[in-house]
Amino acid sequence: MVKKIWTRRDFLQKAGLVGLGLSQLKYVNLWAKGRPSRRGEFPVVISTWKHGLAANTKAGEILMAGGKALDAVEKGVNVSEADPELMSVGYGGLPDEDGVVTLDACIMGPDGNCGAVAFLQDIVHPISVARRVMERSDHVMLVGEGALRFALAHGFKRQNLLTDKARERWLEWKEKLSDQDDWFPPPQGHDTISMIALDKNGDLAGACTTSGLAFKIHGRVGDSPIIGAGLYVDNGVGGAGATGRGEAAIKTCGSFLVVEEMRRGASPQEACEAALQRLIKQRKGKIDFQLAFIALNKDGEIGAASLKDGLQYAHFTPKENKLKDGKYLIKD
Ligand code: SD4
Could you please report the per-residue DSSP string of 240-305? Predict the structure, then answer.
């Protein structure tokens, strides 16, 4: 028996689609790739670390009620910022070497607009100040005293962010200092929250907020408030966020790179891994720190990868909000 060779026309005829106009065929192509069917799984949220679960819960509530991705990421990470037990974000964050808590944050919306604050002190919710910078000024980033003054002018309340627990950890660190110490590498501790959300309309937004590396040099700013390094969102493609050694994310424009990889056709998982591979190559394989990326594309697909073992991330869909392990690239 001669095997019939199926043509595109045969397929369309069988599916009853011959006679459709060009624009309708375009839709059929999308359908074949599965996009509208994935819509059922919207909204989606991905965020870093275990505390991402509580942040996702808040973001998910907003999204399930039909809210916008931008509101979801802001209110979601607000939960982490207000948690005194969380020693890497907002209130209760570990201080710098002088015992001062300094916060970095940035936010990016579906319209490509973004806002950031860096080296901000005495304000519990830096992400909300970053959003205010985005919406109420034509600047992108404010730092230090200027960021604080802007926040106070907009009604944010001043508050001491150094909890007793964080102060004790700082004193312990100081007591152990010796003349052999240097700043390389700094103490580890990677619990920045980066969050990307996709709402029911298919719009993306992202947020990233942190107290930065513990016991850093006073004045140090990491990747978390830097658009393209700690966070990047392109509403036509996807979004990505970082956690870990900020200097490494800055040197590779990490989050931007992840999004650009997705633009070139990589899945979110492949894109996260490609950005980390770029870093490994840049450093000729000499990696003595942790860095991780999370990513979410326009179709609701996610990715998460780190240099070393230990990355966890929280993944929210209408069905569940689950803590998962990220893939890592370097086995010690
Ligand atoms: C920083 N990326 O300041 C931040 C630190 C971090 O989880 O991610 N901690 O470099």
Answer: EEEEE-HHHHHHTTHHHHHHHHHHTT--HHHHHHHHHHHHHHHTTT---S-EEEEEEETTS-EEEE
